[in-house]
Amino acid sequence: MTPTRSRTLAWDATTAIEALAAADTALWIWTPSEDTLRFTGATRPLGLGPLAPECSGAAFVAITLPQDRSLAESILTPREEGSEIAVRLRMRGSETCLWRGVWLEDGLRAAGMVALETKFGGAEKDALTGLLDRRAFLARASDILAVPGDYDVVVADVDRLRRLNEALGHERTDLVLSALGSRLAAAFSDDAAPARVGEDEFAVILQRGITHSSDRVRDALEQPLRVAGFDIYPTVSIGSVACEGGADAPDPAELLRRVELAVGQAKGAGRGGAAAYGRALESDSLSRLALEADLRNAFVRGEIEPFFQPIVNLNTGAVAGFEALARWRHPKRGLVPPDEFLGLTDEMGLMNDLGLMMMTQSARQLAEWLQRHPLAGKLFCSVNLSVGEIERPNLVEDVQRVIQETGLPKGALKLEVTEGDIMRDTARAAVILQQLKDVGASLALDDFGTGFSSLSYLARLPFDTLKIDRYFVLTMDKDEGSAKIVKSVVNLGRDLNLEVVAEGVENAGLAKLLLDASCHYGQGFGYAPALPAQEAEVYLNESLSDGSAPLKQRSA
Fold first, then answer.
1. Is the peptide bond before 53 cis (omega within 30 degrees of 0)?
2. What's the burial of 495, exposed, middle or buried (CB within 10 Å: 0-12/13-18/19+)?
3. What is the C-alpha to C-alpha distance for residues 50 and 365, in angstroms, rounded to an integer?
4. Could you tell me the pTM of the whole model?
5. More confident residue, 321 or 2
6. CB neighbours of 470 closer than 8 A, spacing ≥ 6?
7. Contacts of residue 483, Cβ cutoff 8 Å, sequence gap at least 6
8. Please, which residues bridge with residue 417 across strands?
């Protein structure tokens, strides 16, 4: 008699795809060398329908919300084998999705799963307290800081936790932490993203108000509680850091690092202490040496890169060019704010190296865009010459070499200099500026109107462009004096056959005032902040597709 075979359930490809679809989940595989992102599963509910079954990296970035495009780019950035991906991303026409994955095969490709955030449930909740965990807090803080305003990030460290463990045991100490988490959740709404960011650390992010944020946290946590027959009187050491939200908001991981420095300062003052972050906390010599070493290595490892802020033709609405601005992608701290590394770069004598690097990378990127987007017309890229760089040896030779190597058309690479650089030795500056024009660069005078002697020399210097300082533009709708200065500079530029760029265009109202004044170009957060190269190209694509660059109606 033939033995009866036990029945088994075979999970073939069709079954797997059906299961993914039923769960509103999809699998993804990203292969950078092929520029191909492939999907299997429920792509439509996730907002990925237009991309399925495969798409390019740029197409993927394009359908995320603009403020999340840097996060989308982080998914695509190659990393070492075994590196994990965990990103909270908002797609057009869909709810927030969580992307999880890992880099495989020596970093040649990445694969993972994407699902609606609601499907993950409490996956990013701290198991003990029910609050957000550290990773989720950073994601929520990023969302909150996208909205302009003044904020405080506050971290409270429970004092003497080790002693509590010794006296009560781990299980009872966990009850104390759980109770403190409940109190924090009761005292603050979800808008403050209450979280447990360490074994004994709780955090919130709040809009600054009349009541001090640190006091609110202390009031919530320093209340007596009774656990297993013991009366506990918890105290916390509190650190805080103030920041501004909006397009230039600091990286949340960097903010958390700063506030934890403040916590350390508070704990040094004894139980129940408090401290606010200040630059003095960064003055420790070992920290400075480490930062200097990191900065030197950043030049070698290519961590410093140009971000590109669009410059828009006010008459046609089309993107006319970009200004390249230096950004540092630190491997641990994320994006380091420019005000934290540019000063140190200058002190270390690396500004000339930074200037040459920015000019070279920006020119190469512009050459690629001009090749890929012939409809973009006479696209240009502006690069700032640092203070004193106009006087460095071999500047003209370097500019000539970069233009020849990239094949840029004449004038496409625009060099911006400040009035201070010109005024130190006007005669010598005039010679160098003319040499730069002769090798194919165009020239812009930056922050025009903030100095004293520009008018007496302007007609003699070979500039192509004037840039109006952003202060006058930002205040021209409220201050009659600023409005007159802007109009005067525009008229002066017209009389001298110079193009005029207005910085600080924050909204459609300012753009309209500038257009009425016959200003040529506008630049500012009303169009876009400085964007990574991939996002800048997406922005350029959208401008070419729509016929004009998107402009915010209200000030951000």
1. yes
2. exposed
3. 28
4. 0.54
5. 321
6. 503, 504, 524
7. 476, 477, 513
8. 445
